[in-house]
């Protein structure tokens, strides 16, 4: 984990003297070129979103607009504002439920190992990697049979269930680092499963919850396949609405660009403000944790 | 801790709801998908959305249709596309990610800012990335305007609209190609087993390699999957989508490699330098070998993402561009636009098998190392 590698073990010599084979100017040139690759699309995104439709011309794609036109944002808001609301509700509810269940599962798996716990866990984890296309048709039938097709609740159910493997994984790894002695001491004091969770485990889980909530929120917000399959117009999340916004041929590009900014803003803000925890979730996704 | 205490029973009780849900939603649904893929549900449009559809068991007919049916050429092109996509996507992400991690490991000023820049696309959805890059890759604008900055004429490459392809091969040769590739792999396994003195393993591997080769030489040429040659290759319109995918995901490999590089104790590097290794040797002999588990784990994660990617393609080239389509997209369209559920289920099952080839050995090896701790 980038930010949590103990600095004592890897303390770098203050001077970078022995590592000069490329030379510092070369290093910065490489970094600037790479940064251009990552940032140019974002420049174009904003430049186009802020142009008025008649100023969008393929030959002058790259020019910054002479006059800023903020109207695209209100127009995009009018088209996908409701979908943004759907996504927000969906992502918050699904994330909280998946995080709560994941925390309990992780606690049970890390601190009360029973025979076969690892096999059970491996079977759970497989759910994280399956292509959802392999379960989509029965899932669609199931949600429909429950009467939840076309509602946000059907989508929430799917996201909570398929979110369980990763939330359980992250919490299990998080709790594995909590000393067993802590749990044993509480057991000797007469505390049981639930008391230990409430008094010992839950209070120290905040960093785990932050990682899981950020990761899961981003995943649910960004998801497209379930959004396209399990909902209809009223409950559609923003990813689907955005794909429809930019799909048409006649649409001028300022609108989908403004829509893309609106759709990206929540996860982008989360990343910029809490990037460290985002990266931890990212690395935990590669199972090792 | 011993025996089944009350607390341990609570632990099992807490896990049970999740396990039941996952048993249904993962294993039950997979079983159901596989079953549906053996039926004809939806092949007759009148039955597809009927309340009580008549569903007949047809065995492997859907799979046969996908791999050799006259109408399913699109699917076969997609299988080839997804392989090319996966290879270039993984190479791109590993190369760029490693390069960026090595650069950041040299402690440039403002490291946190660089890292933020390289990683932010990860927080976007593939739909947002696709929308932005679709505009970047417009035929007369965006990237194609770059040459005009130095006075050259604008490029005319059809990033998302090209219909050209390279490295074409005849689909009829697929069984032979597969057999030869697997035979070569078995040959390598046999050679390694021979080198490390594992007699049984060497014999088994060598025998299967020989059987496969004999089959490829004597039997396979007489098999024809299709009546006429059918050419599939790497469609050039995929290049733009691969670039966008690398843009989004290379930050991930950078983060993995950077974590790995930071975990290599400075003493190891010092020791190599003291032994007279120059900087390049030091990387080749000390740093890269230590990073190879990370490379493997990144390849597996990226590979499984790549096989199921479809939202990026949907957003960039639209659902109906057969030159950029992938099986994951086809599954969605076949099932939910054409209501051909059985055929869709067969594509879903094939995707699952491809992903399982990657994931199952990985998960089991992860748990083996963990149990030995």
Automatic annotation (TrEMBL), chain A:
Signal peptide: none
Entries under Pfam families matching the protein: BPD_transp_1 (PF00528)
First-listed, main subcellular location of the protein, grouped into a coarse class: membrane
Cellular localisation: Cell membrane; Membrane
Record Gene3D superfamilies: MetI-like (1.10.3720.10)
Membrane topology: Multi-pass membrane protein
Record keyword Lipid metabolism present: no
Record-annotated membrane-spanning stretches: 27-46, 88-108, 120-140, 152-175, 196-215, 253-274
Organism superkingdom: Bacteria
The entry's keywords: Membrane, Transmembrane, Transmembrane helix, Transport
UniProt GO cellular component terms: plasma membrane
One GO-annotated biological process of the protein: transmembrane transport
CDD domains to which the protein is assigned, alphabetical: TM_PBP2
Segments forming domain ABC transmembrane type-1: 84-274
SUPFAM superfamilies the record matches: MetI-like (SSF161098)
Family the entry assigns: Belongs to the binding-protein-dependent transport system permease family.
Name under which the protein is recorded: ABC transporter permease
Native source organism of the sequence: Deinococcus puniceus
Lineage per the UniProt record: Bacteria, Thermotogati, Deinococcota, Deinococci, Deinococcales
UniProtKB/TrEMBL annotation, chain B:
The keyword GTP-binding is annotated on this UniProt entry: no
Transmembrane segments: 9-30, 83-104, 116-136, 171-191, 203-221, 233-259, 286-307, 341-363
Record has Kinase as a keyword: no
SUPFAM superfamilies hit by this protein: MetI-like (SSF161098)
InterPro entries: ABC_transporter_permease, MetI-like, MetI-like_sf
Annotated Pfam families: BPD_transp_1
Domain ABC transmembrane type-1 positions: 79-364
Main location per the UniProt record: membrane
Keywords recorded for this protein, A-Z: Cell membrane, Membrane, Sugar transport, Transmembrane, Transmembrane helix, Transport
GO cellular component: plasma membrane
Membrane topology: Multi-pass membrane protein
GO biological process, one term: transmembrane transport
Cellular compartment(s): Cell membrane
Family membership noted in the UniProt record: Belongs to the binding-protein-dependent transport system permease family.
Descriptive protein name: Glucose transporter
Organism placement in taxonomy: Bacteria, Thermotogati, Deinococcota, Deinococci, Deinococcales
């Amino acid at each position: 984990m980038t930010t949590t590698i103990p600095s004592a073990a890897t303390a770098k010599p203050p001077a970078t003297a022995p590592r000069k084979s490329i030379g510092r100017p070369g290093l910065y040139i490489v970094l600037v070129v790479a940064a251009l690759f990552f940032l140019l699309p974002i420049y174009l995104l904003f430049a186009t979103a802020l142009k008025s439709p008649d100023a969008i011309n393929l030959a002058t794609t790259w020019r910054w607009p002479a006059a800023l036109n903020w109207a695209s944002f209100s127009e995009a808001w009018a088209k996908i504002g409701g979908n943004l609301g759907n996504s927000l509700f969906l992502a918050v509810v699904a994330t909280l439920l998946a995080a709560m269940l994941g925390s309990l599962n992780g606690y049970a798996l890390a601190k009360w190992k029973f025979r076969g716990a690892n096999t059970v866990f491996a079977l759970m984890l497989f759910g994280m990697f399956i292509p959802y296309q392999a379960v989509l048709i029965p899932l669609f039938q199931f949600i429909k049979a429950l009467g939840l097709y076309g509602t946000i609740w059907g989508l929430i159910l799917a996201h909570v269930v398929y979110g369980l493997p990763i939330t359980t994984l992250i919490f299990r790894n998080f709790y594995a680092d909590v000393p067993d002695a802590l749990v044993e001491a509480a057991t000797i004091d007469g505390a049981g499963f639930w008391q230990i969770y409430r008094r010992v485990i839950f209070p120290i889980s905040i960093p785990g919850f932050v990682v899981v909530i950020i990761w899961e929120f981003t995943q649910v917000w960004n998801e497209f396949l379930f959004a396209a399959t399990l909902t209809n117009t009223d409950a559609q999340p923003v990813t689907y609405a955005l794909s429809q916004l930019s799909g048409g041929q006649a649409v001028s590009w300022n609108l989908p660009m403004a829509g893309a900014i609106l759709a990206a803003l929540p996860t982008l803000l989360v990343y910029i403000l809490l990037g460290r925890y985002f990266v931890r979730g990212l690395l935990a996704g590669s199972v090792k944790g | 801790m011993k025996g089944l205490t009350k607390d341990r029973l609570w632990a099992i009780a807490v896990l049970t709801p999740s396990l039941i849900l996952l048993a249904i939603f993962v294993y039950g649904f997979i079983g159901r998908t596989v079953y549906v893929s053996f039926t004809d549900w939806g092949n007759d449009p009148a039955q597809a959305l009927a309340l009580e559809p008549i569903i007949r068991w047809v065995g492997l007919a859907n799979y046969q249709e996908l791999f050799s049916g006259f109408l399913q050429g699109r699917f076969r092109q997609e299988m080839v596309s997804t392989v090319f996509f996966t290879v270039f996507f993984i190479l791109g992400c590993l190369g760029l990610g490693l390069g960026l991690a090595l650069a950041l490991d040299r402690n440039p000023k403002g490291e946190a800012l660089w890292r933020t820049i390289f990683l932010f696309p990860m927080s976007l959805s593939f739909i947002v990335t696709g929308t932005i890059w679709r505009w970047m890759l417009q035929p007369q604008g965006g990237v194609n305007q770059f040459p005009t900055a130095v006075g050259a004429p604008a490029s005319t490459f059809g990033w998302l609209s090209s219909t050209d392809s390279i490295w074409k091969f005849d689909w009829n040769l697929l069984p032979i190609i597969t057999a030869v590739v697997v035979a070569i792999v078995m040959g390598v396994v046999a050679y390694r087993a021979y080198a490390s003195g594992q007699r049984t393993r060497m014999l088994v591997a060598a025998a299967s390699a020989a059987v496969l080769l004999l089959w490829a030489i004597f039997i396979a040429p007489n098999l024809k999957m299709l009546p006429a040659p059918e050419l599939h290759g790497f469609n050039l319109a995929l290049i733009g989508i691969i670039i966008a995918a690398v843009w989004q995901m290379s930050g991930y490999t950078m983060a993995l490699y950077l974590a790995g590089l930071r975990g290599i104790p400075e003493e190891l590097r010092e020791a190599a330098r003291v032994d007279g290794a120059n900087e390049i040797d030091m990387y080749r002999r000390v740093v890269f070998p230590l990073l190879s588990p990370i490379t493997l784990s990144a390849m597996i994660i990226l590979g499984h993402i790549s096989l199921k990617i479809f939202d990026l393609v949907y957003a960039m080239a639209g659902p109906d561009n057969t030159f950029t389509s992938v099986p994951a997209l086809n599954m969605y369209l076949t099932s939910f636009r054409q209501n051909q559920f059985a055929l869709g289920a067969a594509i879903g099952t094939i995707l699952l098998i491809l992903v399982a080839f990657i994931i199952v050995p990985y998960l089991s090896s992860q748990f083996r190392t963990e149990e030995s701790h």
